[in-house]
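Dear H.,

Thanks for agreeing to be a second pair of eyes. The structure we're designing against is below in token form, covering all 447 positions.
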């Protein structure tokens, strides 16, 4: 059988087997010994994947292969693992090396997260995928189901704060009733302003494609468009709807992790685009405020979550006295008994009344601390079977779906009523099209 026909057969099988178990069971990926030196492949070797590579070097893994559509970005991986075989197409890499890989780290533009992750899981490989887990809510729900159908696979979304003592201290304090009944949370970020462009239109014309870049592979599942120097690659893709998820997708899974983790809500019943400034057909808005309304669950009252981006911040609550100087990124929790400020950097928690944490008494350790607050070691140790604290896709997929529903509401341009059980917008049928997207031929994995 030729490589071409073998590849065609593989892609056809992969596209039909999502949710019924992995296509192959990697002989290395199951039942690891605690002392094994793991083999980790990289989908993406530039950008955030540079951090992946640095952490895996620190933790002493092997790398048999790596992939990036831009050959000029292969260097860090090859410099650290000279024998690693480089690829441009992760579909080919995973097909060729599945039986010698334990896990895959995926750090590429958002529109590639789902296909790369789904292929790896179908091949029986453990997966670490950067935030946001997916490009659309439908993709997040699909990966949750795949993880549920394959419980031995170790799945983790890139969200370093999830391993921090700061988030877990917050979790324990709020769950123990430290601020009373939670009424609202308000989360904000300074992005996208000054980080990447948003609110733009597609430029005219096209530029020559650099020899080091495979532009067709970079587009992957997205619709074909001309290459323009410095407009999409590298990094500035985040503001474009076909490739990124905007400021909300970039920072939402980091910043609202504490809220979703602590409150453990069911799907929101209502998502409202409170403010959407200068959003275009092609790109996310210059500024936005979004509100999610969550229902009552297990005796806990429903609550509202607000999101502010690109420099917008919440107003000072009535119960807060004195100056209201907020950091560039953070969350304010409003409860019946207190107001709490949590900085995204993991700085000290501040409350109003200011002595609330001191007078509350002992806070039970409902959630244990992560050893060394080491997010990356969590994933490797879980593969080895020595750590079970990492965040599986069952959680991070839910978090990503909630976050990305904010983009759906912004695209709809009006409040959307959401039935999470059926994954359906009930008041605006046309908005259901924003829950998913069209895929180019050759990229329809698990559809």
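And this is the sequence the design step returned. I haven't edited it by hand at all.
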């Amino acid at each position: 059988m030729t490589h071409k026909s073998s590849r065609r057969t593989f892609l056809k099988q992969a596209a039909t087997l999502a949710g019924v178990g992995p296509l192959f069971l990697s002989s290395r990926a199951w039942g690891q010994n605690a002392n094994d030196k793991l083999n980790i492949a990289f989908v993406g070797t530039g950008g955030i994947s540079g951090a992946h590579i640095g952490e895996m070097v620190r933790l002493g893994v092997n790398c048999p292969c790596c992939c990036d559509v831009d050959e000029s970005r292969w260097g860090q991986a090859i410099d650290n693992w000279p024998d690693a075989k480089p690829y441009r197409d992760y579909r080919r890499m995973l097909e060729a090396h599945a039986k010698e890989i334990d896990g895959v780290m995926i750090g590429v533009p958002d529109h590639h997260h789902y296909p790369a992750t789904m292929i790896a899981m179908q091949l029986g490989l453990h997966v670490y995928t950067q935030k946001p887990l997916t490009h659309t809510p439908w993709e997040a729900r699909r990966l949750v189901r795949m993880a549920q159908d394959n419980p031995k696979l170790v799945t983790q979304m890139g969200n370093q704060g999830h391993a921090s003592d700061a988030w877990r201290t917050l979790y324990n304090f709020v769950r123990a009733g430290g601020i009373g009944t939670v009424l609202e949370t308000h989360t904000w970020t300074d992005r996208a302003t000054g980080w990447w462009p948003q609110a733009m239109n597609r430029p005219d014309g096209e530029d020559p494609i650099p020899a080091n870049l495979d532009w067709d592979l970079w587009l992957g599942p997205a619709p074909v468009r001309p290459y323009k120097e410095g407009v999409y690659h590298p990094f500035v893709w985040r503001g474009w709807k076909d490739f990124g998820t905007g400021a909300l997708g970039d920072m939402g899974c980091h910043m609202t992790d504490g809220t979703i983790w602590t409150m453990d809500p069911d799907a929101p019943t209502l998502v409202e685009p409170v403010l959407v400034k200068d959003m275009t057909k092609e790109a996310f808005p210059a500024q936005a405020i979004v509100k999610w309304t969550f229902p009552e669950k297990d005796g806990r009252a429903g609550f509202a979550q607000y999101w502010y981006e690109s420099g917008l911040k919440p107003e000072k609550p009535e119960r807060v006295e004195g100056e209201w100087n907020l950091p560039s990124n953070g969350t304010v929790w409003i409860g019946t008994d207190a107001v709490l400020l949590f900085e995204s950097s993991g700085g000290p928690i501040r409350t109003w009344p200011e002595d609330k944490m001191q007078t509350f008494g002992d806070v039970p350790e409902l959630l244990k601390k992560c050893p060394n607050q080491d997010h990356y070691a969590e994933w490797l140790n879980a593969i080895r079977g020595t750590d079970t604290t990492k965040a599986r896709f069952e959680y991070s997929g839910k978090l990503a779906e909630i976050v990305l529903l904010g983009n759906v509401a912004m695209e709809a341009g009006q409040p959307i009523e959401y039935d999470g059980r059926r994954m359906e917008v009930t008041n605006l049928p046309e908005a259901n099209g924003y829950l998913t997207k069209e895929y180019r031929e050759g990229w329809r994995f698990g559809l």
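Two observations from my side: DSSP finds 13 helices and 15 strands in the chain. The longest strand covers residues 270-277.

Warmly,
E.
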